[in-house]
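Field: sequence (string)
Field: structure_tokens (string)

Example rows 1 and 2, in order.
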Amino acid sequence: MALLLIPSATGRTHARWNPISAAMLFAYAIGFSFAYRQLTAGTGALLLFGAVQITMLTIAIAGGEHPPVVEWLGLLLAIGGLVYLVLPGLHAPPFLGSALMVAAGIAWGIYTLRGRGATNPVGETAHNFTLAALPALAVSVLAHLGASISTKGVILAACSGVITSGIGYVIWYAALPGLTAARAALVQLAVPLIAAAAGIAFLGESLTPRLVWAGVFILGGICLAVLARQKSRS
């Protein structure tokens, strides 16, 4: 609801209603939410972002994009850093949880690529959230019948949806038109690293040598790929 008010306040009210993008957002949110009831954080992150990368790169190549060799090397370096980051918590994951997380990654990859044509990121994100919220609410009610609801929980859920998710998705949709599909896939590998850094800053988690080296691999791979793309254009 808050996102719907932003386009009106800024005078940008003309935005597309895109049921397919909304369906992908819904599939991502539901798959992600239920998968993490069975998976550890490290396993879930690896499955999710692995599925995202494969989906986006497959579609990019099928669509005629041909990333240079150096960009592929950067991608491999960044993926290696991600695996190194989450490896300590990995174990044989349950099949259902793994399948749900892979499905969520595929849905997010498609949702991201469809956002590359967004002309009004705020309005289109608001519309996608509105369409996805209706079935998501129904699933949530059915999945939590008999559960207790607290004021604190409602406030935290609202903040998570409107601030951390809604506004974050708006920023992502605004950035996508300037990215190729391959580069959009690559830069998302920084997300687990950012999450780990936030855990240190806000949750008192410790800074470990593993996190430092994983950060070097992930950010180094991203920088290598971005510089390779800029060099190829010059």
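Row 2 begins here:
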Amino acid sequence: MSNRRIVGTVVPGLFFWCLLLSGVGASSLNREAGAIYLEDVIPQPIMLKVLRPTTVYLDLGAQRNVGTLIPDREVQLLAMTDRAFRVKGQAQHDQVSGWVRPADIGGMTDEFKENLRKLYERQVLVEDLIANNQVALGMTIGEVVRSMGDPTKKSTTLDKEGRKDTFEFITYKNVAVGNGRLSVLPGGGLYEGFSYVKVEDTKVTIKFEDEMVTSIEETEGAAAGVAPAVRVVPRPIFLFGGHKHHHRPPGGKPGK
């Protein structure tokens, strides 16, 4: 458990809204600097509507025109900034993906964009924790397993108040213990033989309610020091009411 650290309390700051969000199929694209990809955040494609003939550019610098989107057609949102959307859809000559003006694309409400931003900010915090094998209040069971691996022990309770899970992550160390047998040294002295015994070194107990972390307890050997305070991340944001494969952001029909 020596590489697993529980770190100090952090109040998440807001990231600049100029960060991007992009999605399905985006892993094959060259990511723009500072980009946030929807495939990193949500599994469902977000479908919007083209309001007017729209020029599509290969990059945010608008240096290369790759086509013109057809009005009243649906496009899939791949990325967004405060000044551009990356979409994939049917152009006049072929299907294209690239950057367009948000004013030319309808169907994205301010509330939905705000929730996307919050979801991404949470994702940044969680991915940093996972990269450092750390755990925080508000993480999900899946995120904890990604960070810490499978637990040494676990238990689950289901009652009228919901589901409660307890995970224990235990590491062990070998300690030399005298075995009571005396041996004679070549010079005539005596020494006691020893053997190694595996004992518990550290234990992290994580409790979940409805599959989200509600408490973390870390106990360590005397030489390991005192564990710092616990970090907190926001609870997951659920953008969709169900688990549909395609989704139009709320706010009426696309284009409204």
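free_text_note (row 2): The helical segments are 110-131, 141-148.
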